[in-house]
Write a structure and sequence with these properties.
alpha/beta; Aldehyde Dehydrogenase, Chain A, domain 2; 22 strands
Length: 451
């Protein structure tokens, strides 16, 4: 099966690749294992030097790598450049902090000396999506290479050039051959990799279906997984919020990456008394979005990543409207382009309420009061992120503890950052990436007690 790099803006085929054979996969696993046996013994000073070099190269090549993202999955140029800069930030962060995160942790025991040491475990398989083709990988690879592990990447099939570019920049920075390898394969090959005893763990960012399959196979082999799955993040605006600021930020939060983000704000939960005011500002922000060629500096967003994704979103919106939802703005598709859309009058039992809408569609829910707003926020199978807007910070701090989610930001756009843990609950997955928690997911936290 050919793996294609195709520009979603014009459907032009850029380049195709042949899927790697079982024999080629086996060779890469063997190389990874051989490399790991040496890499795990390197010191943090050496790893840090290479990781900092990677950050330098990413910044030097940000235009080149951003262009790859724009070509392969349609990311707007300005957002693509920001993504590369964020990857460099992650490299810097773990280069500077990994040794301290993984230092021995003293334990208070009745006699002798006891501590927890953190040892690498080996080969970690990463199954990654197309929507943030560099960032999703670097938030895995930076902590794991610094921890002494090695990585294999099965990237989404529509971003093969991005996958190869990540291997390129790490190799050029000086990481030994085999520390990180890209596998140009279909999803059907993942099970054979998870079945290999040398592969010790897996991390996946993607759909619920893909996550459950990887977790099932890894579980069969008693291997740890970290899953970051879908999200339908609540954006809660209380009546005492700065309504205009919330609406302006809310539009950005919904439209980041053209709405194709697990942690994009998707459900806008508004207290009834301020709903009309919020929607007036919100609609204006959506009307001002410029859609066109994503390589144009003056364009906000281009097409969605593939035409089939735009069709799926169109079907969800049309079915929601048939069942009572109202279009405040948008709702039209042209090939892979989908208009920025706001849906109101959304009730239980329709796709816009029950499902994740992975694209530029905002869902508006009206809450009678604060208690009802929290109930609406929790009435979802997902629990990845979200935000709450109020000028009463003490109240806000209390309310966010009631929300079933991996992260909630107060008066702030929800976005991942190397310094804070990232991950979800419920159907949004389990485990954490980034921060100190992320680097400790795939190490052996070994107890040592000396008499």
């Amino acid at each position: 099966m050919a793996i294609e790099s195709r520009n979603p803006f014009n459907n032009e085929l850029i380049k195709s690749f042949e899927e790697e054979t079982d024999h080629q996969i086996a060779q890469k696993i063997e190389l990874a294992q051989e490399t790991y046996l040496n890499w795990k013994s390197t010191n943090f000073t050496h790893r840090k030097e290479l990781m900092l070099k990677t950050a330098v190269l990413l910044r030097d090549r940000k235009e080149k790598y951003a262009h790859l993202m724009t070509q392969e999955m349609g990311k707007a140029k300005r957002e693509a450049i920001t993504e590369i800069e964020k990857c460099a930030l992650a490299c810097d962060y773990y280069a500077e902090n990994a040794e301290q995160f993984l230092s021995n942790k003293k334990l208070e025991v009745p006699e002798g000396e006891a501590y927890v040491a953190h040892d690498p475990i080996g080969i970690v398989l990463a199954v990654m999506p197309w929507n943030f083709p560099f960032w999703q990988v670097f938030r895995f690879v930076a902590p794991n290479l610094m921890a002494g592990n090695v990585g294999l990447l099965k990237h989404a099939s529509n971003v093969p050039q991005c996958a190869l570019a990540i291997e390129e920049v790490l190799t050029d920075a000086g990481f030994p051959k085999g520390c990180f390898q890209t596998l140009l394969i279909s999803s059907s090959k993942v099970n054979m990799i998870l079945d290999d005893e040398r592969v010790k763990a897996a991390t996946l960012t993607g759909s619920e279906g893909a996550g459950s399959k990887v977790a099932e196979r890894a579980g069969k082999n008693l291997k740890k997984t970290v899953l970051e799955l879908g999200g339908s993040d609540p954006f809660i605006v209380l009546k005492d919020a700065d309504i205009k600021e919330a609406a302006i930020t809310g539009a950005k939060a919904r439209m980041i990456n053209n709405g194709q983000s697990c942690i994009a704000a998707k459900r806008f939960i508004l207290e009834k008394s301020i709903a009309d005011e919020f929607l007036a500002y919100f609609k204006t922000e959506f009307e001002n979005i410029k859609i066109g060629d994503p390589s144009d500096d003056h364009v906000d967003y281009g097409s969605m990543a593939r035409e089939d994704l735009a069709k799926e979103l169109e079907e969800q919106v049309e079915e929601s409207v048939k069942k009572g939802a109202k279009l405040l703005i948008g709702g039209k598709r042209n090939k892979a382009f989908y208009e920025p859309t706001i849906l109101t009058n959304v009730k239980t039992g329709i796709p816009a309420y029950e499902e994740e809408l992975f694209g530029p569609v905002a869902v508006v829910l009206i809450a009678e009061n604060e208690k009802h707003a929290i109930e609406l926020a929790n009435d979802s199978k997902f629990g990845l992120g979200g935000s709450l807007w109020s000028q009463d910070i003490d109240k806000a701090k209390s309310l966010v503890r009631q929300i079933e989610s991996g992260a909630i930001y107060i008066n702030k756009l929800m976005a991942s950052h190397p310094a804070v843990p990232f991950g979800g609950v419920k159907m949004s997955g389990f485990g954490r990436e980034l921060s100190e928690l992320g680097i400790k997911e795939f190490v052996n936290q070994k107890t040592i007690w000396v008499a």
